[in-house]
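Researcher: Go.
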Amino acid sequence: MKKLLLIATGGTIASIEGEEGLVPGLSADELLQYFQAGDQNIDVTCQILMNRDSTNMQPEHWVSMAETVAQHYPDYDGFIITHGTDTLGYTSAALSYMLQDLGKPVVLTGSQVPISFKKTDAKKNLQDAVRFACEEDMGGVFVVFDGRVIIGTRAVKMRTKSFDAFESINHPYVAKISGDEISYSWKPTTPAGEFKVNTKLCPDVFLLKLYPGTKPEIFDYIKAHYKGVIIESFGNGGVPIEERSLLPKVKNLTESGLAVLISTQCLEEGHDLFLYEVGRKVAQYDVIVSGDMNTEAIVAKLMWALGQTSDPQAVKAIIETPIAWDLSVDWGKED
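Model: Structure:
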């Protein structure tokens, strides 16, 4: 018999009508009454870890989830985490770094409509998550949503209302689920090491999205209050080098030991700092590059890397090394 632990954290899937709008509030028994395994060989235990709108999710809550999985790891064959959709991609990425060499599936899911509503996607998503959590020889963190399985570091919420809210960015979908059938398009390799948990995080990370007119002075504030900054630049990685040039500030941050990561606002295909002058000018400083990682993974990975070390070179090495399939192995190589 497969034993699964359902870890509930709140979100739309567990929401009820409150005085000021939807708010998470279902109990473990109420959640389980909607669950229909359809298989007597599956035993599901539900634990309410928290009841939060995912807008209120913080790095400390990622740690609680990781520690809960680690605590119960020997006792269950798989884990399901129900979660609000708005920050689910950040959580799935963070858990991918904190839960290392998983030999069992940790599946995150949620819904766009509460499970108690008549027209809801919650029941299907939960049943699909349970189905995938029972897979043999499957280890890692995954997002299951609208019949699609996404590796945890590649899930991005693209739509606010539609049931197909999530897409896999810069990486193949793991599989598609239709009833009891799972059709794989890509299958992760089984980890070689033993499972371990590392929940050290440093949340002192700033995410800056550039726009025409960004004031260089913002970097003075960042330098005084943060240990790392992610600059979401334009296109292939360019930053302004003429009026309101950001180069002197980036140089100052790197020389002061702050971790400076250059990313792109474009969702797909990553960036190449050496293609244009505006990229090469910033690449001359000791910046970190994100390759084809998505923002959710970059934020979580930088927090996790800074939790391991304050050495900028060591942080750079961690970020630029693929972990949990977050970065294409051949990214940046010449054709």
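Model: The chain has a mean pLDDT of 91.
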